[in-house]
Amino acid sequence: MRQTSRVNDTTIAALDRLDALRSALDGVALPLSVAGADAARDARRSAVRQIDDYIQPRLSNLEAPLLAVVGGSTGAGKSTLVNALVGIPVTRTGVIRPTTRQPILLHSPADAAWFASTRILPGLARVTGTVREAPSNLAGEEPDAAQIGSVVLVADERVPRDVAILDAPDVDSIADENRELAAQLLAAADLWLFGTTANRYADAVPWKLLDDAAARDITVGVVLNRVPAGAEAEVEADLRQMLGLRGLGTAPVFVVTESQLDDRGMLPEQAVAGIRGWLTAIAGDRAERARIAGRTLAGTVERLCVTARAVAEARDEQIVVADDLRETISTVHGDAAERVADATRDGVLLRGEVLARWQDFVGTSDVFRTLESWFSRTRDRVTAWFQGRPAPAIEVEHEIESGLHAVMVDEAGRAASEAWSRVRQSAVGRQLTSGADLAHPSPELPERASRLVRGWQQGLIELITEQAAGKRTKARVMSLGLNVITVALMVVVFASTGGLTGGELAIAGGSAVVGQKLLETIFGEDAVRRLAAQARQDLEARVHVLMDAEAARWDALLAPVEAGADGDALRDAAIELQTAMAGVGTSTGEHSRSLLPSDLVEAEALDDEGESAIDGEATEIRELAPGETTEHRELGPGEADR
């Protein structure tokens, strides 16, 4: 009779929400080295990996065989325990650390397809092996750091069906990759068999992991190994008290008294009888297996959501820092734009050659004459101008253009230097700008500033043309020339006298009045006021665009910080997953359906004989010695500790 995996609608919904949270976690950016960022990055990476390794496959099928991971500290005798549980040396023991580099997964032959596929731990390659007779110090394979990314699958009839045993590396190994792999394997477990010793059970590292187990509500069996004869009761009582304080008071404790090993390096069978009985009882009780799987899954999802919220907080902090840096950059360049605007208001641009050229053109002696006489005289001056006697209006225009261009380039350079200096005052800013050079304005700035001035001047011509719609006004404009009117409007825009003193004040002030009276004669007082306001607004808007473009050079550094999911997206995804998980396991089942191929994790549907509905096999088959088949090999000298 085939045993078909089934999922109901609530499970499918929970899987969808889990996928959404995974995408949010995978897409969150935490590049800045702010306080807590390293821990958040590690937590995010571990959470994504745990979703792939454990949560998604377990949620997809609560009836799949359980994975019991044997973990613990260096020298806790984990591999010796595993060998004793199986009854034959399958994993190497020894005093040289680390002994276990390639984790060994022992399973019933009936469960082979469940573990040969990438249903769980998809990132680890599979190597299939068989057991050979050898003492424990030669069992398994030679420790090989190059094989750290694979797991050796060993099928043996002595392993009970529906519970596999995985011998993991030391949680406090001297090798970083071993510690990371141990954490990954423990995170993928349905239950732990956690080994420690009489003289090391109070160490900090194991308790950090046991605290995590309590937070996940995972089923844990604690093995207190190498307890001196006669000290069992005292040591066990102290350990149980510590477990109770950490929320693990119901965890079974198995005391293994210090014993003489036989010539194969094996513990006496009775030393691990209690542990074997516990695992066998779980394996033979379908309801208990379902309870353990459901409890561990629920606790792991809750822990995942807590992690997601912690990562969200770290993400918020990254965004705040990025926003502060962007605000600093924006403010500095905005201030530069305002300084350019101030320079166009306070008469600075009418100093020197600009003022002299303008004075050549109109002078100030006619300011108090009657409007008619003033206009007539001015028109005569303009006529003479085009005949080549005074300096042409184009020279005034050129001087204004040069002055405005110089002010913009200077202020942009000042802004670039100030922004660079302020950002790099902090360690985060120095990290962000490592390898970059934004202390100077862009090479394209002078040309862009020139285009800005020309564009603004063209805009003034268009404004004047629009204003001179009437025939009479148009005639007046044509009599003087469009360039002359444009220059006059520029002078009016720049002629506030706040920055001039002495003789400059009198000359510039008078010149501005002349320019304004000229324009008022043509367009009228209100129209001139509007023209000047529009001209100034247009110029200031263009300058802000120029400075914004300079500030935008920082986007290449800040955009990667700001890209991806934000903290709210993570929090929302976590809440939605929790809501979806509330219905998992509580539905009546009337909406259940057979697991479709699109839902199925490889090799999740098994028949009673252990045959897979989808063929599952090792991702890698290697031979240990000449003459072995390509289907199986003997497990060579290996990786266990005592």
Automatic annotation (TrEMBL):
Residues 607-642 are annotated as: Disordered. Keywords: Membrane, Transmembrane, Transmembrane helix. Signal peptide: none annotated. The chain crosses the membrane at residues 480-500. SUPFAM superfamilies: P-loop containing nucleoside triphosphate hydrolases. Residues 619-642 have a biased composition (Basic and acidic residues). Pfam families: Dynamin_N (PF00350). Residues 607-618 have a biased composition (Acidic residues). This is Dynamin family protein. Residues 69-201 form the Dynamin N-terminal domain. The keyword Transmembrane helix applies. InterPro entries: Dynamin_N, P-loop_NTPase. Coiled coil: none annotated. The keyword Methyltransferase does not apply.
